[in-house]
Each structure stands twice: as structure tokens, then as C-alpha cells.
Inverse folding.
């Protein structure tokens, strides 16, 4: 990652769309187009590798679009990538009724953080205790993730990356239930739903500033492997 800061515009004029700084979601979208082009035979393995390297180092939207300008999907998906708000509730059938994992803290603390893979449904219980669920470095294998948080004289803190969508439905009884809604620029970005109740306790979910879904290299590598296997099996 390039940590050098680019000078900000100082003339007061709007920045052209092509000069906007690209996000990880933008790079992931273009990597998907290149992956499909490789599988369809539109690009050779060498061309694909060269363009993926360029995608990972691109800094602006205009730089990204150069890599798919000669591909039909680049034009079709560009029009379809207009951001749309995530739904307030999960898609029916997308979330199982039973949790994939329970995180329980009774007069204690429990933490889930770092490079981990959250399931589709997680239940968090803080009874006179503290639960911390940090998704800022998580590897999302599902597009929709539900977290049911119950706090009784306890505290549940949930942190998500800035480039996912966040939704919440719940309440408090002499307590605080607070979810800071968040909309991703990418309609295909993961959506985290927080539901639950705070009884004389606290449940809070919000983005962790400066943190983004950062498993693009893992995703690109996996997709390239699948595309190459599909190509060789023909």
C-alpha cells in the first residue's frame, strides 16, 4: 500500500470522476472482470497477470478503467455498478435460524478479532461482561452476516470495515442500543446486520475508521486458480 499522500485539489473545482481515488471495492470489481475475461479466453494468462498487477497498484478510477476498456464486460458492469442502498433486513433464506457461533461473556470478556472468517449468523451474549467483535480485518465468505447481540448489565462492541454496509434493528431497556448505519459504494459489498437488545447495558456497532476489507490479494489468487483450473479442464 502506498502511504504517501497525494496533494489535495486547491482550486475549488470538482474533481473529475476519473481522477477520484479508487477504493478496494473498485479494484475488486475490475479484478472480477479480468478474471472472467481470462476464463472466456479474451486474455492470455500473461496479459491477465500484467493487468492484475496494474489493478492492485492503481490509485484512481481512471487508472482502473484502462485495464478493462477493451473488454465488453467493462462497459456493461460500469453502468451496473451504481451504488444502491443495502436492504434494511437480510434476504429471506440467506441467514440460517441457528447461529454458526456463540460468543458468550458472563462476568468476563470475549473477543473475536484479526484475520478470521465470520459465519452467516453469530450470537453475542454479554452478561455482566464485555464482548468485542472486530470485523475490520475479517475475511468475508458470505455477502450477508447477521449478529444478534444481547447485553444485560454488559457491553457488546461491534466494529466493521468502512467499505461494507451496516444495518441495525434493536432497542434498549434502561440501556443503549446504537448502530451507525453505513452504505458501501459497491452494491456487492458485504452487509452486516446487527439485531438485539440492551438491558441496563450497551450494544454499539459502527465502522472502524481507516479499516477496509483488505483480502483482495487472497480473492484474486483464489479466482485466478479457479479460472486456470476451469481453462485446463476444457
Amino acid at each position: 500500500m502506498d502511504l504517501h499522500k497525494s496533494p489535495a485539489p486547491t482550486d475549488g473545482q470538482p474533481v473529475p470522476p476519473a481522477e477520484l481515488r479508487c477504493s478496494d471495492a473498485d479494484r475488486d470489481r475490475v479484478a472480477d472482470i479480468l478474471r472472467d475475461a481470462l476464463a472466456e479466453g479474451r486474455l492470455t494468462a500473461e496479459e491477465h497477470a500484467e493487468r492484475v498487477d496494474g489493478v492492485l497498484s492503481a490509485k484512481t478510477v481512471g487508472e482502473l478503467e484502462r485495464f478493462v476498456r477493451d473488454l465488453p464486460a467493462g462497459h456493461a458492469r460500469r453502468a451496473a455498478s451504481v451504488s444502491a442502498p443495502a436492504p434494511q433486513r437480510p434476504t429471506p433464506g440467506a441467514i440460517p435460524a441457528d447461529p454458526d457461533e456463540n460468543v458468550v461473556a458472563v462476568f468476563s470478556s470475549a473477543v473475536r478479532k484479526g484475520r478470521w472468517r465470520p459465519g452467516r449468523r453469530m450470537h453475542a451474549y454479554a452478561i455482566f461482561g464485555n464482548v468485542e467483535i472486530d470485523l475490520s480485518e475479517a475475511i468475508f465468505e458470505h455477502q450477508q452476516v447477521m449478529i444478534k447481540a444481547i447485553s444485560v448489565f454488559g457491553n457488546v462492541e461491534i466494529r466493521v470495515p468502512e467499505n461494507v454496509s451496516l444495518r441495525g434493528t434493536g432497542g434498549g431497556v434502561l440501556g443503549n442500543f446504537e448502530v451507525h448505519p453505513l452504505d458501501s459504494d459497491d452494491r456487492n459489498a458485504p452487509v452486516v446486520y446487527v439485531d438485539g437488545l440492551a438491558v441496563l447495558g450497551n450494544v454499539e456497532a459502527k465502522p472502524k475508521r481507516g479499516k477496509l476489507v483488505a483480502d483482495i490479494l487472497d480473492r484474486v489468487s483464489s479466482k485466478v486458480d479457479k479460472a486456470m483450473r476451469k481453462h485446463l479442464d476444457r
Summary: The helical segments are 24-40, 45-57, 61-65, 72-80, 216-233. Residues 1-6, 77-82, 216-221 have pLDDT under 50 and may be disordered. The first strand starts at residue 101 and ends at 106. The chain has five helices and ten strands.
